Structure formats: structure tokens, C-alpha cells
Amino acid sequence: MIAPARVLLLGGTSEIGLAIVGELAARGGAREVVLAARDTERQDEAARHLRAEGCGVVQTLALTPADGHAQLLRRARELLGGIDLAIVAVGALGERGGLPADVDAAVEVLEVNVVLAGSLLLHSACELHEQGHGRIVVLSSVAAQRPRASNAVYCAAKAGIDALTRGLDDALRGSGVRITLVRPGFVKTRMTRGLPVPPLACDAASVARATVSGLQRETPVVWAPGVMRWVMAVVTLLPGPLFRRLPL
């Protein structure tokens, strides 16, 4: 697979998302990019960074509420002259712990990771389906595999977008549109700064390399690091009493 030339990053300030675009540029792709984010000041900085990394044209859009996502996708497609790859990279971590101290903040985590991300994914799928071709990358997490008390809300939210992604990929078979689901473990980014760093932690650049390699192989699910596939296979099979004793 040739590296996608026209790329839309939904979540235009995401460190992992930007690293994926940068990796594509390093492999000869991402010549035209549209970033869409809520934080326009940080997004402008990200656009300058991508231009310095070799992306020829980088334009920006404001990430609108869900009722404007159809127009957002249409405008991005117009700016790019077609979308080869859409990356859904919006997310929020929230507080750790099973029963949240701030319920409103916990609900916001659900809204960002499921409703906002889900709306962007659905509209991307519809736009690319109408176009007749294209790829979508969705950033999920290994946390989607089995909910744990240390971050119950985040796990549930990622499980939601993970399930939607897998279902849509099956629904789009034969349409010319494919979806790659990315399940990283702990990634050292702004979002996780200050948290204890567990074994098998990785950085945004390594997730980006795994993602782009997965795109080139047309792998439906990318794990980062790759060993997390086998770690989570074991974790998923553990009996409840034993699982709850793990320091997760």
C-alpha cells in the first residue's frame, strides 16, 4: 500500500495522531493534511510542526459539536480534493478509580471517548463510503479489552468506540473503505503525564510506526507494542477474583 497522500486528522492536537501523520510524511505520504481540533492555538502550532516535517500543505478547521460533523467532513474533503485517510484521535482520560469523585467529569469522559469519537467515526465512514474509497484509523486502547476498577469509566468508554469500530469495519467490507483499529497500551504523552509508568509502556512515535506498518499490511487491528496482543489475551481469560488482585 502506498502511503496515503491526503490525510484528515480529527483531533488535530493529539500527540499520537500527529506522530502518525509525521510517520506517513517520512514514508512519502501526508502531502496534504487537514487538522481539526477544539484547541485552535495548539492546533496552529501542530500545523507549523507538520510543515517542518515535510507535509506540503497543512490546513486547519475548528472541531465542531456533533451536529456539525457532517459539514466538517464535507469541508475537509473539499479542501483535500478527497480523503485518503481519516484518523479519529479524540480522547480524554479522566480521573482514576472505579467510583468517580466528580460524576460530571466522568460523564464528559464518556461523551468525548464514545459520543464525540463515535460521531466523527460514523461521519467519516459515511463520507468515505460516498467517495467510494479510503481508510480510517481509530485510536482505541488495550483498556477496551477488560474493564478494571482503577479506571472503570475510561475502560468502558474505550470499549464502546472499540466495538463500534469493529462493527463498522465488518459493515464496510467490499465498499472500498477499510478501518484500522489501534490498541496501544500505556503511552507516554501529555494525557498520561504524572502517572506511574508501567512495564511495556511506549511513546507516540512507536505507536505511529506500528500504525503505519499496520496500514501498509492492511491489518485490521494494530497493537502497540505488539506483545500487548498476547498480554491482553491472557488478561481477558483470568478469573475475576485473580484479575481483581492484579496491580492494574
Encode the helix/strand succession as letters.
EHEHEHEHEHEEEHEHH
Shape: globular
Characterize the biggest β-sheet. 7 strands, parallel
Distance between the termini: 38 Å
**CA gyration radius, whole angstroms:** 17 Å
Tally of extended strands?
A: 9
Uncertain runs are none
Name the structural class.
alpha/beta
Major sheet strand order = 3-2-1-4-5-6-9
Helix content: 40-55%
CATH class: Alpha Beta
Overall pLDDT score: 91
The tally of domains stands at 1
Q: How many H/I helical runs?
A: 8
Task: Describe the structure in brief.
The chain has 248 residues and is α/β, with parallel strands linked by helices. The chain has helices spanning 15-26, 40-52, 69-80, 103-131, 152-171, 204-217, 228-237, 240-243, and strands at 6-10, 32-37, 57-62, 85-88, 134-139, 177-184, 187-188, 202-203, 221-224.
